[in-house]
């Protein structure tokens, strides 16, 4: 028979703790009430809890990596719906756990349910599963528990995750077409260089005629591709490995993130995306009742950009010294000169040209004046969360518009690039043919 640890008080208010045997919690409550006691806390005895936890954890499967944001978003929405229906939190989690396919989420939910049955709160249980629930998630749940509004917090959290997922999906879908066109174009050019151009080279060699400079250059490139074809996939991998290795150091990571914010064409898109995400994160935390210092710290950690992390750290220190949010945001929104960023511009944009591009963008802010002014107004009126939401909505729309404009500009450029390359190859191959035909006609 299960053992339960109870805490109860008698009619005079004197409390006591005991361990009793019973079939379930209802039986414990009924027995003690009949004896004139009121139960204040009841939980499974430690030995029983350990056995149940071990039994549950035996159902875990092997899973690699963290829970995908799309899966976590769907789980949060379903949990919000179940809580709105009035179900106890443990039962809601058990329902979602039974429905979840084997993987990281199911394993995390098994651990969360075991922790709650052991007497932990929901936020404490989720904090022990960092592969599934990050600090933003845990702190919002903690705020909901403290304020007695867990259903409302879950709804806000699900809306926040859904907006973030929509923004991410929008950018991914916009980038799919140009990436596919680039790979398709490179495949066509590689096929022409490997299979077509060498055949023409054999024909020209049989006629023993002098080839135009354009054709000679094409033959040289074709020979290099045929001889060193294995370097084609090695080159992008080497660039990726170079970036991955250098950004493993904090100093270089900051320079790389600053480079992404300053790079032509795509830089504004990266900047607007981070601003939208961080302001929405901060607004959601403030609205949920998380203390402002903790909210800014969480926003800093979830920004995924070293430049914004540094700015929010400086804002955090200023607030601790008694300042507002808007003032340090204005003072620290202009990153200073960074040698690592200059290095990446030099590496990716042909040396001196890249250095000149970086120096031209040196005074550019990462937070526009409109954001700073809206934050300032929000602090003055006591509606900081609403102003942050408005900023996030505006920048979400700007990201969508800018992405559409970018795609409408890139599509014709890619088509022109492919046409020029293929047309140049055709011209280079047919120039000697024309010369041969003229010589034979004479």
Annotate the secondary structure layout.
Elements: E1 3-9, E2 15-21, H1 25-34, E3 38-44, H2 46-57, H3 69-84, H4 89-99, H5 104-117, H6 122-127, H7 135-147, H8 150-207, H9 213-227, H10 231-246, H11 250-262, H12 267-287, H13 292-301, H14 306-320, H15 326-331, H16 339-348, H17 352-360, H18 369-381, H19 384-441
Antiparallel strand pairs: 1-2, 1-3
Helix pairs in contact: 2-5, 3-4, 3-8, 4-5, 7-8, 8-9, 8-12, 8-19, 9-19, 11-12, 11-16, 12-13, 12-19, 13-14, 16-17, 18-19
Can you describe this structure?
The chain is mostly helical and about 450 residues long. The protein has 19 helices and 3 strands. It has helices at about 25-35, 45-55, 70-85, 90-100, 105-115, 120-125, 135-145, 150-205, 215-225, 230-245, 250-260, 265-285, 290-300, 305-320, 325-330, 340-350, 350-360, 370-380, 385-440, and strands spanning about 5-10, 15-20, 40-45. A 3-stranded antiparallel β-sheet has the order 2-1-3. Strand 1 and strand 2 (about 15-20) form a beta hairpin. The longest helix has about 60 residues, at about 150-205. It is elongated, with a radius of gyration of 31 Å.
